[in-house]
Design brief:
Strand order of the largest sheet: 3-2-1-6-7-8-9
Largest sheet: 7 strands, parallel
CATH class of the largest domain: Alpha Beta
Number of strands: 15
Number of helices: 13
Order of helices and strands: EHEEEEHEHEHEHEHEHEHEHEHEHEHH
Number of domains: 2
CATH superfamily of the largest domain: Glycogen Phosphorylase B
CATH topology of the largest domain: Rossmann fold
Distance between the termini: 23 Å
Helix content: 25-40%
Strand content: 15-25%
Structural class: alpha/beta
Length: 368
């Protein structure tokens, strides 16, 4: 059985099923740098996965996002432990989940050991428009040394092609979630919004400026000013909580809830209890909460700055959160009941994604 080394900064729960599937056909070792302070993910046990935390220096920094004037906390990971673990494991193929120093280490080992390196990466023309010159030149150098790529979806493929990568070098998959959880109809649905006015407008995500939650509150404030009755609910945690609560008061939103992070089975209930899910993000390379909401059957309105938007949704369900006119027109459809229902046929399952990656790694080149 071939050996596969997967290099990540942290192990995201939604990737566990895909990694477990890969571990069925490869002797797999996941080398990670540990959790980041801005992530509160709780990992479920996966007995089939062999993981090891490598010695890593995490350096916090501010990263400009695609919308001018807004930044987010990011981390540079210097995975010094890879210098020990890659020669010790001696993989037959390496899959690196970024375009930075971790991949540079993978490339150096790959050249010395004559091992193919794949880069599994997400990023869009929007999310990468304001990166530093140093980061841009590092990526150009990496592109010149790697000829096998796995992209999050169509918008990431578009960005990779803009760097000069040929389409036949790219395996275009789709960011995915453990969808089974969101297909289950709760036997005793929780009355999450019992007594609250309809429609219930829901969003889920970190309480940080990048998520555009202030734009959503301001748009809902304009609804309230016109006499519309509704409930706005946010599920998430982060440093912006108090500011968002105050902003809701200033916009005279009478029925406003912020719930802490919830496990996926509970999120499934909340998605199903809401009337519409809105993702107002100013930048997301994908936006997995859209997948979750769609699998749960919730109608979705999505910012054009989410990488998933053109791939999963019709144009009528996509809006510009920076444009009050565009945002208001999108929310008006909630009250007119004209938001298009989710088209689940556009979603790939984790099984499909895992099989695509596994087949390509075995073949040695992207297999669509």
């Amino acid at each position: 059985m071939k050996k596969l080394a997967i290099l990540v900064n942290l192990i995201a729960p939604y990737r566990l099923p895909v990694f477990a599937l890969l571990a069925q056909s490869f002797e797999t070792l996941i080398l990670h740098g540990g959790a980041e302070p801005n992530r509160t993910w709780a990992l479920e046990s996966q007995p089939t996965l062999n993981t090891h935390k490598v010695f890593t220096l995490q350096i916090p920094m501010r990263k400009k996002i695609g919308v001018s004037g807004v930044s987010d906390t990011s981390y540079v990971h210097i995975n010094l432990g890879l210098l020990w673990w890659l020669p010790r494991f001696r993989p037959d193929v390496i899959l690196s989940n970024e375009m930075g120093l971790r991949t540079v280490a993978a490339i150096c080992y790959g050249k010395l050991a004559r091992v193919p390196v794949w880069v599994w990466w997400g990023g869009t023309l929007h999310s990468e428009r304001n990166i530093t010159k140093l980061r841009y030149h590092l990526r150009r150098a990496i592109v010149g040394q790697v000829d096998r790529w796995v992209s999050y979806g169509a918008t990431t493929t578009e960005y990779l092609e803009s760097l000069g990568i040929r389409r036949n070098q790219i395996l275009q998959i789709q960011n995915c979630v453990p969808h089974e959880t969101f297909l289950k109809v709760p036997s005793n649905p929780a009355g999450w919004f019992k007594g609250e006015p309809k429609p219930v407008i829901l969003t889920v995500g970190q309480l940080v400026p990048r998520k555009g939650l202030d734009k959503l509150i301001e748009a809902c404030g304009r609804l309230a000013a016109r006499g519309c009755d509704f409930t706005l609910t946010i599920v998430g945690q982060g440093p912006e909580r108090e500011r968002l609560v105050e902003l809701a008061k200033q916009n005279r939103i009478e029925h406003f809830l912020i719930l802490p992070n919830q496990p996926q089975p509970v999120l499934n209930e909340i998605y199903r209890a809401a009337d519409v899910f809105v993702l107002p993000t100013l930048e997301d390379v994908w936006g997995l909460v859209v997948n979750e909401a769609m699998w749960a059957g919730a109608p979705v309105l999505c910012s054009k700055y989410a990488g998933c938007a053109p791939e999963l949704l019709s144009d009528s369900n996509i809006f510009d959160p920076m444009s009050p006119q565009s945002f208001d027109a999108a929310l008006a459809k909630v009250f007119d009941r004209t938001v298009s229902p989710p088209d689940k046929s556009k979603l790939k399952t984790w099984q499909e994604v895992g099989e695509m990656v596994s087949r390509s790694l075995h073949e040695g080149s992207p297999v669509c």
